[in-house]
Design goal:
By secondary structure, the protein is mainly beta. The chain contains two helices and 13 strands, in the order βββββββαββββββα.
Length: 266
């Protein structure tokens, strides 16, 4: 997808008009980079996990100290890289990189991989688009659980704090016991929903859903670095940046803002 540009420059020239204010939800001072994953595993009798498949393609997310957000969404991956049963899938020949800068109110996207062709595109956002992008990447998702169905018993346990991949997080586990006969099961079935959050980093670190004696879906962050490379938030050296500055909402930013909504672990 190639976007037409009004002008070309090394960086946006008119995009720094609205600095972050005290009321902004943008998270600053908590920089990191990590790989976001969601995988299905089987719990073996000895408690170890046996990998089954990736529920989502492992992707990198990052945030710098100024609140800039980076995400590498893989949308409709090509067959050669779409291998969910491989724990570490091969790299795609093309994938998108999106960086949201809340200070400049700009989204910049470019391609990476051997098939990447078009230059980086910087899109000036409207106020409403900035609000959408900020809320998608700053406010941790609220964990809303449906009440346990009739006959089932749910208990909530505070798991305290622990360090996960270098980040201190607090955990809560909801255990639901479904009686025999529910959904055709012959014996009681126990399901867990476990969430680990870092209040300091304002991140969901891990979510576990599943059957203690069967399969689980584990989503979370690993390979966490608290000192992300500044180059993650800039187009590659030497690349031209096409500028889009329009009045009102930019249709060219709609897809990027939609993809930003997938930034958090859920």
């Amino acid at each position: 997808l190639v976007h037409r540009a009004a002008a070309q420059s090394d960086e946006p020239t008119d995009a720094a008009s609205a600095p972050i204010t005290a009321n902004s939800p943008v998270v600053t001072g908590q920089a990191f980079s990590a790989m976001k994953y969601a995988r299905r595993v089987k719990i073996l009798p000895d408690g170890k996990q046996q990998f089954i498949k990736n529920e989502i393609y492992p992707t990198q997310i990052a945030r710098d100290a100024e609140g800039r957000i980076r995400i590498e969404p893989i949308v409709d991956p090509q067959p050669e890289c779409d291998q969910p049963t491989s724990l570490v899938p091969p790299p795609c020949p093309y994938w998108s990189i999106i960086v949201f800068d809340p200070t400049k109110q700009v989204i910049t996207h470019w391609g990476s991989g051997e098939n990447a062709a078009h230059p980086a595109v910087a899109i000036k956002l409207s106020a409403s688009q900035v609000d959408d992008a900020e809320s998608s990447t700053s406010a941790m998702p609220v964990d809303v659980r449906e009440p346990a169905p009739d006959g089932a018993k749910a208990t909530t346990e505070n798991l305290g704090d622990k360090t996960i991949d270098g980040v201190r997080a607090s955990g809560v586990r909801i255990t639901t016991v479904f009686p025999a006969g529910y959904s055709g099961n012959k014996t009681p079935v126990t399901k867990i929903h476990e969430v680990w959050r870092s209040a300091e980093m304002k991140l969901v670190i891990k979510i576990i859903d599943g059957d203690l004696n069967g399969e689980e879906t584990i989503a979370g962050l690993d390979h966490v670095s608290l000192q992300p490379d500044p180059a993650l938030f800039e187009p590659p050296d030497g690349s031209k940046v096409q500028i889009r500055a329009e009045s009102g909402d930019s249709q060219y930013a709609d897809r990027d803002i939609t993809l930003l909504a997938e930034w958090f672990v859920r």
